[in-house]
What does this fold into?
Amino acid sequence: MNRPDFKMIGRMILDLQKLEADFRRIFEEGPAQKERLVSSCRELMRLQAVGSLADIPVEELKNARAGIRTAALEKAGFHTLLDLYRAKDYSLESVEGIGEKQTAAIRSILDEFLDRLAGRGRIRLTAGSTENEKTDLSWKSGTGSEGNRGVFSDTASSGAAFSDGEGRQKREENEKIRALVRELAVYRQAEQIRRDAEPILGEDCPALDRMIENVAIRSRLRWFFSGRSAKEDTILAVGSLIAFIQSPQHERMERFAGLYRQVLAIDDEAAQEDFRKNSAAYYALIEKITGAEVPQELIYSSIPAQLAAKINALELDLSGFKGDLRAYQAFGARYVLTQKRVLLGDEMGLGKTIQALAVMSHLHAKDPASRFLIVCPASVMINWCREIAKFSSVEPFLLHGKNMEDAFLQWEKKGGAAVTNYESMGKISGRINNRLTMRLLVIDEAHYIKNPQAQRTKNIRLLEDESERILMMTGTPLENKVDEMCELIGFIRPDMVKEVRASAGMRHVPAFREMLAPVYLRRQRDQVLSELPPLTQEEEWCSMTAQDAAAYSIPVMDRNFTGMRRVSFLQDDMRGSAKARRLLELCSEAREEGRRVVIFSYFRETIRKVYEMLAENERDAALRAFSPDGVSAADSQISDFRKGGYFVGVITGSTPAAERQDLVDRFAQAKGGGILICQVQAGGTGLNIQSAGIVIFCEPQIKPSLTAQAISRVYRMGQVQNVLVFHLLCENTVDEAVMRILDQKQGEFDLFADESVLADAADNLADREWIRQVVEEERRKYLPAVAAPR
It folds into this structure.
């Protein structure tokens, strides 16, 4: 029997033991990372509380019964607890009647105040940037008064505004923030690795331990003195180790261990960049592990304490939910589950859809055969299906088009979430009424059914007894539209309508909102997002209309990649454009909230069509075509559109610099919101459009730097509102291929590569072979439809 190479075996065993140790380290370090995070958050909350000492007069020391001479302190110029906190011990001891003992008592009392203030505080991290300045993170006090006592930013111009003590504190806070953001970035990425690698921990590591132990002979000397059976067992064990090294399990362990090492090496700049891209996830993580939530009074708004306690008592089962909920979103989900029939009116961008999915996940966890029905505008049906699949374990069924019958039968049999539009409800309501039961009926953009005489309203109202819970969702503020509100409330809580109508005259006072609390929950961004301003990006997937598909097939057959990228803006009549419909809906919702909108496109032809749709020649026809209430409501919208000067103008590469600035100034001064259309190459440089709160891209850009530059015109230093970015996309088109390659590149380089490398790799997408492959793939997909006889 040939003697094996024991040096090779020794090296192999050492490598495997190191790999096993590195892999187990991923999980073993988790608790310590979490503990450090909690400690860092507490330290920062305590530090942030320092600014609040400025609101507490020195007289409060009298209540401490420590015999401290407060009058002498005030006479010496110490008027607040912040003055005492920043003073040196020798300065305090120089005051008449204040010695070492009294100074120590003052320090002890200040510590007690800071502990109490920190217990009520909350962490705020904000990121801002300019093209020529190094981006930094700053912290804003959640408990102190306004002014430079509570707001610190690490900009070159701010240092002169602070005293030496303030400057030291500011630097200390910024250092702690920077360290905390890095800890959060590491923990966040490490948790993802732990979730993905956990199955291996239970399956492969114990087997590897046993395989290594089975190599009983590990030296030539022992080989010489061992029997044949032991030698054979050793050779078999070595073979098992070699087979393991060549297996997918070994490759996965190496990959996860390597990723974890890269995560631990994340530097401050990479962490800040990740925070800027995923700020909502960072705050959700802080809330989850530290309990440093947004204060109750802001989450619950006018919800009475007794009702809030009842809602919070419900244990939310998110075992099948694949996302992270903010505290206010978790409360919203509990609110729906507890109150059963409600109107959720959160402002645009606060995640009404996510809250609905959390409700479905809870109900599905209790009963996997549960049925849910979502009724929404046609433009967002695909979005709903994608979000359901992405964030929950519930199976989505699209009840629309030629496959409606099959999808309905599957939903009826298996349960899950059926998604349909208002126009299809005429075919569906009768098949559900008195025949099927549902755990939840979701009515998205519920203001579509405010007219009780409309057929779609009647179709939906047939189902009021078929669903245990009804969730109506609208971002349109209803407080000043009591009649519309009563129509909606009348569907879910008819017993409340009379009282609401009678109290319409007091709609501006808190008591009115408190009266609505059992049925209507509305939160505004500045109430629940203490970290303003965050940047939120949404993919708005649209299903092509017949006109879209016909127009799109032409550049596909011509192998015209540029033409394909203009999908849904190729035809002349925008009434048949899925993207144009969604664009108008977003603009309408923004106008309701008085927000300014910047619309970007790379293509001048697209800009022209959007302009014509919104401006004089096409505006009336477009609004009539897409208004949910017909011509009369459209006329009213058109009148408001003209009177308010809502549409400001267009900026392209040929727009003179002076005219550009004039348009930006008019846009910033427009009352009640406004719309500005920009060519992405022109609007992405040299402009400051931070008065905008909503950005809409008509197509994905194949040079990510163009997208980043355009967003930076809005989301930049000085921005005081959160920014919503919407990307209009069509499924089953080149949009999917572009987003796929962008996501792939981002995933490969995000946090693990130099930023310039990522930029170079991504910006060269236009030169890659993938364009040719995408064109041919699209051509094969659409060729049968084009070649088929009509």
